């Protein structure tokens, strides 16, 4: 899909649970501004999304930051992979929910600004985005 991870990004991908090298529920990425964290997160969630009968969240401190990851996931699913969509919720072009037909896998975009939407806990395969520290 044209993704060439940097050495720092590859270090995060190579210790993930999909590679069988980590049993940890959470991993923390500490990288600077413009280092490709959102891009990396979108590619990190794709194997989960392409696994049948899975559900995940993209959570950001606010919807605007979560949409950075969601836009890339939407582009990969709809433009590059051309997967059939069972249902989706978009408002003004921003993705809030996507369910892939046939796979029955789904992704929801949520915000920490709306804590009521986070009830039920973070499902496996979710990405929680954050902010850079200056």
Can you describe this structure?
- The chain is an alpha/beta fold and 134 residues long.
- The protein has a domain at 36-121: Beta Polymerase, domain 2 (2-Layer Sandwich), CATH 3.30.460.
- Helices cover 28% and strands 22% of the residues.
- It has three helices and five strands.
- The protein has a five-stranded mixed sheet.
- Helix 2 packs across helix 3 (63-80).
- The chain is globular and about 35 Å long.
- It starts with 6 loop residues before the first helix and ends in a 6-residue tail after the last strand.
- The model has no long low-confidence stretch (mean pLDDT 83).
Name its key features:
134 residues, Beta Polymerase, domain 2
In short:
The protein is built from 3 helices and 5 strands; from the N terminus they run H-H-E-H-E-E-E-E.
In terms of per-residue confidence, which ranges show pLDDT below 50 for 5 or more consecutive residues?
none
CATH topology term of one domain: Beta Polymerase, domain 2
Written as H for each helix and E for each strand, in order along the chain, the element string is HHEHEEEE
What is the name of the CATH class of one domain? Alpha Beta
* Overall pLDDT: 83
Structural class by helix and strand composition: alpha/beta
The appropriate CATH architecture of one domain is: 2-Layer Sandwich
List the topology elements:
Layout: H1 7-13, H2 37-49, E1 55-60, H3 63-80, E2 85-91, E3 94-100, E4 105-111, E5 127-128
Parallel strand pairs: 1-4, 1-5
Antiparallel strand pairs: 2-3, 3-4
Helix pairs in contact: 2-3
């Amino acid at each position: 899909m044209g993704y060439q991870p940097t050495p720092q990004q590859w270090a995060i991908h190579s210790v993930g649970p999909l590679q069988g090298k980590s049993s940890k529920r959470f991993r923390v990425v500490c990288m600077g501004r413009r280092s490709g964290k959102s891009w990396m997160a979108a590619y990190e969630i794709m194997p989960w999304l392409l696994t049948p009968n899975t559900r995940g969240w993209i959570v950001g401190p606010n919807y605007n930051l979560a949409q950075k990851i969601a836009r890339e996931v939407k582009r990969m699913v709809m433009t590059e992979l051309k997967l059939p969509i069972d249902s989706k919720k978009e408002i003004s072009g921003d993705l809030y929910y996507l369910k892939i037909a046939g796979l029955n896998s789904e992704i929801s975009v949520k915000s920490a600004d709306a804590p009521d939407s986070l009830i039920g806990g973070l499902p496996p395969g979710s990405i929680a985005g954050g902010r850079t520290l200056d």
